[in-house]
Specification:
With 153 residues, this protein is an alpha+beta fold. 42% of the residues lie in helices and 19% in strands. The chain has four helices and six strands, in the order E-E-H-E-E-H-H-H-E-E. The chain has a two-stranded antiparallel sheet with strand order 1-2. Strands 3-4 form a two-stranded antiparallel sheet. Strand 1 and strand 2 form a beta hairpin. The two termini are 36 Å apart.
């Protein structure tokens, strides 16, 4: 950042002289600095929006099911790919307990995966999930603890 200091000049008799041209130049420089800062802020904002849109497009079009689950095991968000994998609409699963998406005998395993991830950061294991058609889908469930990540948790 540059600092510009302007002082009035003096005529031969010691009287202060202020040039309107100097005032216009300083005003122009000041407005250019404000415009440059605003343009830089807008460029950063646009890049951030493009990055978020790109990430959203990748996640929403992935074949893997990604779910955000709170510490109690309640689904906060699930990607639309859940429809192709399990037959459930993504919107219908918000607020559901994760264990309701697995075969009843698999619930203790899912609860253990969640507990292990909460303590150690991440784990995975095979799980028999219940599809909307009541068929069983055998999936690998990877659980990562992102509760301390300010962008996720």
């Amino acid at each position: 950042m540059a600092t510009i200091t302007a002082s009035p000049g003096a005529d031969g008799g010691g009287n202060a002289v202020t040039s309107s041209r100097t005032t216009r130049i300083l005003s122009w420089v000041d407005s250019r600095a404000i415009t440059s800062r605003e343009n830089a802020r807008l460029l950063v904002e646009a890049a951030s929006m493009r990055s978020a849109a790109r990430f959203r497009a990748m996640i929403q079009n992935a074949s893997d099911v990604i779910a955000l689950v709170d510490p109690s095991g309640t689904v906060a968000y699930v990607t639309p790919s859940v429809t192709g994998v399990l037959g459930f609409g993504a919107d219908s699963l918000g607020g559901a307990r994760l264990v309701t998406l697995v075969q009843p005998d698999e619930a203790p395993l899912v609860e253990e995966l969640l507990r292990t991830a909460a303590g150690h950061g991440g784990t995975s294991g095979p799980v028999a999930c219940r599809a909307a058609t009541e068929a069983t889908r055998h999936l690998e469930m990877s659980v990562s603890n992102l509760l301390d990540d300010p962008l996720v948790g």
